Design the sequence.
């Protein structure tokens, strides 16, 4: 029997994909966003999904929904909403979403998972959030061995983006061998591919009529080999992947999400004049450096928070913002992974996600330390 995970605040599945690739079974995913839940369900069709408010659930209900008994659950993982902690946002301590971080640890304690892994932005460690973080960790510290929060950059684990996030990890000593921060550090890659290399084989010239999801399926120009490309093209776990999308990719070499954004001629002129790494004064969008890494991709907001679109990077050689498929490549999502039919929700899902490169590396360490029979 493979060890089982519950993914809270699962979004489109950056943590879920890494967990399943590492050898875990996804017992349950939970998210209250119907759009992101729909995308998760599309990519993980054989698993159990729950569109629900995590704060309203109990540990017993989680286990029941996952068809698990007490002692069966190996891990609870998740990245609770980060907007109230983000250093580029309002940093609103009264944001009700902040409390979802505490509910994560409440459910860990109630379900008695063998380990937990929580992710959030670096701002959660700022002094104004000390009391909240202490309250959350206080729910598990009597039973779990809790590591000091650690920061990980996705580029250190093979993704072509400088995306730093904080991880909180702990485990029950009776169900897991000792895990140290050095164990995670040793899984780092030597180098991440620069932007231009990571976007190889995707179309550079996006035609204006590729403006819908249906018209944005494009054939890869070629396929490359190596560790990065194996993650992008292959390593498809059982029970993962939309069958139609997989068929198009595996049989016809076609990928979705090459959706063009139609810019005015004035905007294209401004973008074309930018040097790599330079920021457009009006849109505040920055041009990617072909030999560099992508800055952190931002998510934008859902409909209940104003439906604000994220600031999207400008392509390093084209006078346009990047497509959802290009964003997915830079974040470490495979070419066979399906996103929403709109650019807005695609970028929202990608920008909210943990890179699958990161999550797989962390989960491979954890699964190697779980005690047999636990």
Sequence:
């Amino acid at each position: 029997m493979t060890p089982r995970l519950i993914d809270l605040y699962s979004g489109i599945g950056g943590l879920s994909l890494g967990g399943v690739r590492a050898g875990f079974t996804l017992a349950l995913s939970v998210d209250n966003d119907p759009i992101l839940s729909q995308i998760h369900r599309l990519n993980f069709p054989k698993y159990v999904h729950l569109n629900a408010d995590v704060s309203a659930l109990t540990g017993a209900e989680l286990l029941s929904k996952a068809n698990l008994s007490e002692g069966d659950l190996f891990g609870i993982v998740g990245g609770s909403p980060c907007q109230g902690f983000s250093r580029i946002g309002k940093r609103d301590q009264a944001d009700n979403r902040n409390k979802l971080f505490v509910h994560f640890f409440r459910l860990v304690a109630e379900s008695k998972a063998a380990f937990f892994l929580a992710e959030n932005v670096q701002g959660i460690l700022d002094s104004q959030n000390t009391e909240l973080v202490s309250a959350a960790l206080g729910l598990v510290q009597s039973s779990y061995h809790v590591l000091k929060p650690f920061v990980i950059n996705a580029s250190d684990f093979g993704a072509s983006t400088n995306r730093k996030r904080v991880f909180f990890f702990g485990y029950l000593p009776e169900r897991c061998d000792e895990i140290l921060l050095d164990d995670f550090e040793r899984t780092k890659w030597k180098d991440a591919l620069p932007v231009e290399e990571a976007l190889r084989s995707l179309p550079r010239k996006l035609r204006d009529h590729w403006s819908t999801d249906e018209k944005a399926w494009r054939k890869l120009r070629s396929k490359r080999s190596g560790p990065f490309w194996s993650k992008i093209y292959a390593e498809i776990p059982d029970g993962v992947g939309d069958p139609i999308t997989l068929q198009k990719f595996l049989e016809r070499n076609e990928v979705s999400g090459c959706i063009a954004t139609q810019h005015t001629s004035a905007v294209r002129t401004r973008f074309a004049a930018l040097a790599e790494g330079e920021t457009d004064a009006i849109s505040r969008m920055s041009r990617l450096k072909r030999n560099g890494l992508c800055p952190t991709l931002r998510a934008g907001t859902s409909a209940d928070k104003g439906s604000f679109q994220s600031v999207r990077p400008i392509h390093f050689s084209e006078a346009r913002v990047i497509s959802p498929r290009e964003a997915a490549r830079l974040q470490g999502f495979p070419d066979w992974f399906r996103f929403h039919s709109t650019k807005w929700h695609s970028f929202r899902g990608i920008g909210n996600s943990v890179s699958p490169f990161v999550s797989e590396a962390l989960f491979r360490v954890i699964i190697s330390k779980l005690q047999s029979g636990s």
Remarks:
- The two ends are 11 Å apart (CA to CA).
- The CA atoms of residues 106 and 139 lie 6 Å apart.
- The chain has a mean pLDDT of 92.
- Residues 195-351 form a domain with the DNA Methylase; Chain A, domain 2 fold (CATH 3.90.120.10).
